[in-house]
C-alpha cells in the first residue's frame, strides 16, 4: 500500500474519531472488499467471509477511539480480520469435533446394543437347546416359523391342547434357565 493511502486512511480515521460519520462510510468503501477477500482467503467460505468482514466493522466502530496511531489503521484492521477468521475456524473445528464425538458415541451405543442383542439371542438359543426336543419344536414353530397352535398340532400330529401345554411348559423352563443365568429381570 502506498504512503498516500496510509495518509488517506489516517485522515479518515481522525475525521471519524472527531464525529464525522461520512468518514466511516469512506473507510468502509475503501476496505470492505479487502476484508472480505482476506477473510475468504483464510476461511475458504464466502458467506462466512462476509460475516467476518461485517463483524470486523462492528469491532472497528467500537474500538476506533482506542486507535492511537491512525496511520496503523490498515495493519490494525487486517489483524482484526485475521483474528476473527482464525476464531471462526476454531469454532468450526470444535463443532466438527463435537459432531464426530456425537456420531462415535451413537455408533458405539448402536454397537453395544447390537452386541447385547446378539448375546441375548445366543443365550436364548443355548437355553432352547436345553429343553426337551418336543418343547424345542413347539417353541421354534411358534416363535421362529410363526405357526399358530392349530398349525403346530397338525404338523406334529398332536392335539391343540397338547401343543398349547408344551408351549406353556417350554416357556416356564426357559424362564427358569434364563433366571438362573441372570438374564431375566
From TrEMBL:
All copies of the RNA polymerase sigma-70 region domain together span: 27-94
GO BP, one annotated term: DNA-templated transcription initiation
Against InterPro entries, the record matches this protein to:
RNA_pol_sigma-70-like (IPR039425), RNA_pol_sigma-70_dom (IPR014284), RNA_pol_sigma70_r2 (IPR007627), RNA_pol_sigma70_r4_t2 (IPR013249), RNA_pol_sigma_r2 (IPR013325), RNA_pol_sigma_r3/r4-like (IPR013324), WH-like_DNA-bd_sf (IPR036388)
MF terms per GO, please? DNA binding; sigma factor activity
Tell whether Protein biosynthesis is among the UniProt keywords: no
Annotated RNA polymerase sigma factor 70 region 4 type domain ranges read 122-174
Tell me which Pfam families the record gives: Sigma70_r2, Sigma70_r4_2
Q: Which SUPFAM superfamilies match?
A: Sigma2 domain of RNA polymerase sigma factors, Sigma3 and sigma4 domains of RNA polymerase sigma factors
Q: Does the keyword Transcription regulation apply?
A: yes
Transmembrane annotation, as ranges: none
Keywords on this record? DNA-binding, Sigma factor, Transcription, Transcription regulation
* Protein family: Belongs to the sigma-70 factor family. ECF subfamily.
What protein name does the entry list? Answer: RNA polymerase sigma-70 factor (ECF subfamily)
